[in-house]
Design goal:
Blueprint: H1 3-30, H2 33-39, H3 41-48, H4 61-87, H5 90-110, H6 114-142, H7 148-173, H8 180-186, H9 189-198, H10 206-211, H11 215-226, H12 232-246, H13 251-255, H14 261-275, H15 279-284, H16 286-292, H17 297-325, H18 327-352, H19 361-379, H20 382-393, H21 399-428, H22 431-450, H23 462-465, H24 479-488
Helix pairs in contact: 1-6, 1-7, 1-9, 2-3, 4-5, 4-6, 4-21, 5-6, 5-8, 5-9, 6-7, 6-21, 7-8, 7-17, 7-20, 14-20, 14-21, 16-17, 17-18, 17-19, 18-19, 18-22, 20-21
């Protein structure tokens, strides 16, 4: 636990802050009158009509595209990022991510017409696709096994810090007319600039160096991040895993094989479930949601700040608890808490929020508290573990390819939720929270029967100690079939 390696963790984790800032800034910007007047005047007009349906006043496909276009770009970029991670390494891929994100901030802040606004979002998306691929892999590969969970969750912790900073910025610039939204979008370049500078100082991961044939460099990097010269045992494990990986000439094809199915199914499904908790609907459109239940514009932005603070503090619980309690316990506890909160919000809105008018102040604050309890449970479970589990379960030969599938799935379903949420809110009204509650039940069942515990298991020992011991997944780990596949290759 050297000063150097901790510095590497923190600098790399700024990729999460970059991603989180964008998540938080979108909802605030789309609720600012100056932004709506310039790019979506018809939405602003609809918002001003008191008799307009509460659930439908923000329903606009182009407004949703402003938020969701980023994730469509990130989906495509994640596969290019996978190749970059393999061929160039984790460190250069992080540099590329920060460069695109800075370009996105410049385009967005300078936007005069819609195409410039959307182009800025696309550049943001490419940066997010590269960053979300490289940073969690980097953190997993440089962390000692006993602290891997906590180190990897630094990514999600910085995501939540980014969301909180964005909430403060939204609240601070909301009265800066008419360019408050430009300031909010332009500040997105700050964490990306820190990541860009940091990418010159962090080390490349030993696994990436050995994987690309730089054996002496890999050993030196391992000695540097561990702070001791005696790293032979760990180095030999890394070297053996990389030699095994070289037998696989087409990692994406290998990923489709039977023995690769357990980590692939879990890596993909945990991303789907993460989005269908409804968390990003709340984080993207938090201010919009609070306006829907009766808060004024500034009050809704302040409520989002409270939400962001809860998000950060709860993520710290995961940092200190994931390697103590394990992955499964946190996920199952949170599923129960999220289900109760979503059902309570559903009941309150169904009974008390009519198409016109708002909730009385007491009930509106009850909704805020329930949303905070929901975010709290997500922040110490499905949020950070959605990135941790895929980064630690794929073997080295399919790690970048498998994690690319996980990242692209996350971006795809984030895009779907971001693009559809305001329309779903309009048509389903309070029942949208029932929709997410059903998904939370499905998630809990998945964890009980199909998700193994990976606490304290070395990444390169997952096959023997996890998959071959699991009552369901061991059926896919046929040694003979694996041998035949290697002979065919």
């Amino acid at each position: 636990m050297t000063v150097y390696v901790v510095s590497c963790w923190i600098l790399a984790a700024f990729g999460g802050l970059m991603f989180g800032y964008d998540i938080g800034i979108s909802g605030g910007v789309t609720s600012m009158d100056d932004f709506l007047i310039k790019f979506f005047p018809h939405v602003h007009e609809r918002k001003l009509h008191a008799k307009e349906n509460n659930y439908c006043k923000f329903n606009d496909q182009m407004l949703q595209l402003f938020t969701s276009s980023l994730y469509l770009a990130a989906l495509v970029a994640s596969f290019g990022a996978s190749k970059a991670c393999t061929l160039l390494g984790r460190k250069p891929t992080i540099l590329v991510a920060s460069t695109f994100f800075i370009a996105g901030a410049v385009f967005s802040a300078a936007a005069q017409v819609k195409w410039m606004l959307i182009m800025g979002r696309v550049l943001f998306g490419i940066g997010v696709g590269f960053g979300n691929e490289a940073v969690p892999l980097f953190l997993s590969e440089v962390a000692p096994v006993q602290h891997r969970g906590a180190v990897n969750i630094l990514f999600q912790l910085f995501v939540t810090i980014g969301i909180l900073i964005a909430d403060f910025v939204n609240y601070g610039v909301s009265n800066y007319h008419p360019n408050g939204w430009r300031v909010a979008l332009g500040i997105a370049g700050t964490p990306a600039l820190v990541l860009l500078i940091g990418s010159f100082f962090i080390t490349e991961t030993p696994t990436s160096l050995v994987e690309r044939g730089n054996l002496s460099g890999g050993k030196k990097a391992l000695e540097r991040i561990r702070g001791v010269p005696d790293v032979d045992a760990e180095y030999e494990e890394i070297k053996a895993a990389c030699e095994q990986a070289k037998l696989i000439v087409r990692p994406f094809r290998k990923l489709m094989s039977r023995e690769s199915r357990p980590p692939l199914v879990i890596g993909v499904m945990i991303q789907v479930f993460q989005q269908f908790t409804g968390i990003n609907a709340i984080m993207f459109y938090g201010p919009v949601l609070f306006q829907t239940v009766g808060f004024k514009s500034n009050a809704s932005l302040l409520s989002a700040v409270i939400l962001g603070g809860v998000n950060v503090l709860a993520t710290l619980v995961s940092v200190f608890g994931v390697d103590k309690f394990g992955r499964r316990k946190l996920l199952l506890q949170a599923s129960v808490q999220m289900f109760i909160c979503q059902m309570a919000i559903f009941g309150i809105l169904l009974v008390h929020l009519k198409p016109t008018g708002g909730l009385n102040p007491g009930l509106a604050w009850v909704v805020v508290v329930l949303v905070c309890l929901f975010v709290m449970s997500f922040a110490w479970s499905w949020g950070p573990l959605g990135w941790l589990i895929p980064s630690e379960t794929f073997p080295v030969e399919t790690r970048t390819a498998g994690f690319a599938f996980a990242v692209s799935t996350n971006m795809l379903f984030t895009f779907i939720v971001a693009q559809a949420f305001l329309s779903m809110l309009c048509h389903l009204q309070a029942y949208i929270f029932l929709f997410f509650s059903v998904w939370i039940v499905i998630m809990g069942v998945f964890v009980v029967f199909l998700l193994p515990e990976t606490k304290g298991v070395s990444i390169d020992e997952m096959n023997e100690r996890v998959w071959k011991q699991h009552p369901v997944w061991k059926k896919f780990m046929d040694d003979n079939e694996g041998t035949r596949s290697q002979e065919m290759l």
